[in-house]
Amino acid sequence: MSSVIHAAAVYLLFWVSLRIAGRRTLSQMTNFDLILLLFISESAQTSMMGSDNSLTNTMLVIATLIGINVSTSLIQRRWPALGRYFDGLPLVIVADGRPFFDRMTMARVDEAAVLAAARNGPGLERMDQIRYAVLERNGGISIIPKENSERSNPSGPSSI
Amino acid sequence: MDDPRPTEQPPDFGQDLAFQRREWRAERIGWLTIAGLVLAAMLGLLGDGPLSSTSADSPDGSIHLIYQRFGRITATQAIRLRFRPVADEDRRYRVWISGAYRDANRVPEVSPTPEHVEDDRGRVVYVFRALQIERSTEVTFYVQPRAAGICSGQIGLVGGDSVAFRQFIYP
């Protein structure tokens, strides 16, 4: 029983922590972020497993984590309005080439990140070529180019 | 917010600015909570630290106990006992711990190493050999709490005084 409770508590702790950290925190995985994630999972592992390294306990912990994950997706399908509490909502950060600086500040996105997304995706060079930039639920930035903008890589809307 | 208006009605992509602002507010409260947790941990409110470390004396002042107010389940903590030894004729002194406290904690190590351990009417007695009768002796019990919650204990000398203490163990 304690394995299930511990795994559920760790899941909840992770969910709250990642929501608090904001969607941009781990969306662009740098080398350091990757190591940070490994440290976090390592520290959570002992709490979930305790001193019981049996196959049964491992199975229980995995079953609990996957079970909760599936349940949350089912809940989101059944009650779509709750989805925003799990993953947040998209946010328009640039419209018609003009950045919403207050939104970007609050979401911790800078102009350089938007321009990087614009280069990586549709191959845009300047802010005024962007019709919309949207900060997605997963922390990536989607770029929708203006129709008349000249592009070096016209692959359409994309997200990094 | 300064919404620049595009030339036509903009798609909203499912955004909800009121919800977004509430989310940002919750995010900032979360940051403050994390900072508070770290500060509380540094101060010792979540385990070892300056506000956790405390001591208690027996009524006659012969025993001085140093322990942590706050502990964490399975984490090792030291309980230090300083006392004027009451040695028996066989040049041994006996320190006892209440059975309930002993049951609530693992004791992986005791320093100095006791000669042997015996049960005595609900108490666990650690018998030490007194190489010489010193004016003050220190015994350290390294304990690991088995359960979360309030943990009360009593520790004393056979034939001497005792001191009661209480800890809170975090899960």
Keywords:
heterodimer, A: 160 residues, alpha+beta, CRO Repressor, five-stranded antiparallel beta sheet, 53% helix, B: 171 residues, Immunoglobulin-like, 2 domains, 43% strand, elongated
What does this structure look like?
The complex is a heterodimer of chains A (160) and B (171). Chain A has 160 residues and is of the alpha+beta class. Chain A is 53% helix and 12% strand. A five-stranded antiparallel β-sheet of chain A has the order 2-1-3-4-5. In chain A, β3 (130-135) and β4 form a beta hairpin. In chain A, α1 (2-21) runs antiparallel to α2 and α1 (2-21) packs across α3. The longest helix of chain A is centred in the middle third of the chain and has 24 residues, at 55-78. Chain B is an alpha+beta fold and 171 residues long. Chain B has two domains: 12-43; 53-170, Immunoglobulin-like, CATH 2.60.40.10. Chain B is built from two helices and eleven strands. Chain B has a six-stranded mixed β-sheet with strand order 3-11-10-5-8-7. A five-stranded antiparallel β-sheet of chain B has the order 1-2-4-9-6. The longest helix of chain B has 27 residues, at 17-43. Classes of the chains: A alpha+beta (160), B alpha+beta (171). At the A-B interface, α1, β1, α5 and β3 of A face α1 of B.
